[in-house]
Amino acid sequence: MALETIRFGNFAGVKQGACTGGIPLNWAENAQNVSTTGGKLGRAKGYRAIYPPVTGLPRKLRRLFIWPRDNGTIDCLVAREDSIFRYDTGTNAWVDLYHYTDDMDADIFDFLKTKIGSTETLLVGNGLEPILKWEGNNAPIAAFGSAQGQSNKAVNFLELYFGRLFAAGDREHPARLYWSQAPGDGRTIEDWSADESSENVSGGHVEVGTDSDPITGLFAMSNQLLIFKRDKLYRLLGDRPGNYRIVPVEAALTQPIHTACVLYGDRLFFLTDRGLYFYDGQTVRRTVHGADLVPLLGQVDFSAAASAACGDTLYFAVKEHSASTHNDLLIEYDVLRDCFLLRRGFQVVDLMSCYGVLYVLTGRGEVAVLNEGSTYGGDPIEAFWETHWLDGASALTVKQTVEAVLTGTGGPLKVYVLGEIREGDSVSALADEYGPTEFLLRSAGRRLKLRIENVNGSDFDLSGGAELLFDEQRRVL
Questions:
Q1: Over the stretch 126-153, which tens digit does the pLDDT of each residue have?
Q2: For 116, what's the count of Cα atoms within 13 Å in the CB-facing half-sphere?
Q3: What's the fold here for domain 47-370?
Q4: I need a labelling partner for 47 at 20 to 30 A (CA). Which of 83, 193, 197, 401 fits?
């Protein structure tokens, strides 16, 4: 008979599917709506709605775009399956900018801010109609390009690379990559035709790969254009048509949904059912802890995924439950610490980062700022952190829990210990000034599992870690 202690400190992220004995104690098997910044454990912040829900018929929402203008203002656009809306800050109401002939699919919309001549212009690709362009303010949305310029194509992937517009997603030519003329001397990105004066200023197109598999995404990096196809990744090198080269990237990977890809610096990260990968400019690699959520990722639905990078955190929204109308799981990945955290409790249609602020189009139709406030749109934030099974130094002995000690402020908190023989819990507020607080517990088993959860959305901050005290006894054979 002996009293033993397990100490938890410097909280990290969520790690699943690994051998329990090889996992450091500061990693959780499951957690939601918590922050572990600086190794502390606390309740995550909520979101604050900045614009009311999109009004009108109850049609399905698709995409969000925040357009920062050169004059310092910001335009907010929301694509619904039938229309594109803009929020008018003058009238504090949503304005219907454009109405589609047919309802749009979830992954069709692509927005791209650019300039045509000296005019700030927003391009919208939808894959069913020719590209649209909008100059902002009270200007109507107009058609982009022309038949003469060979740019009246229905495409839905748009990227700028070395000053030219590149496009793909033409349903009539699914493997085709288009590029515009080089702007200048009267040329604009609205012209994709050849220029007799020089091949190097001409527009054009090429079929990517040796098969007809469709292009499924375009991403521009500083020195190359990435081209995803259904079963392969290619990169376009060169700065003008005369030296363009399209070469395959020799790497085994699960092809991602393009809306689950996000640029961070000059690396492209993408989330798949096999984990988190990144392209480093030469090849594809999985992050060191990229497989930590594979058991969960193998069950989620990526069909309406959304992603964004804000600061040093990547965000991926997916459906944990296929019956959900919108994404109901938000996965956070801390690039610097290489760890995952999970958010639940609200639905995400789309995400976008702008000037260090993460904007969310919620399932309620609100446009909100994440990581502000203490609720999810008025709903309490239900947070918990749960360990893997703990056997102390040996699985051969029976552990009878005596107490848990948490050091921090806030609460109340519920501390729960699950044992294979008996389980117990205790509820208390934490002491002030980050002092220790004792939670008396009565649970038993050869293995124990500790769970810390808030009560009615309460906020808390565990800066001094946690300890679990138990009485260890040999089993009687």
A1: 888 899 999 988 788 999 999 999 999 9
A2: 15
A3: Methylamine Dehydrogenase; Chain H (2.130.10)
A4: 83
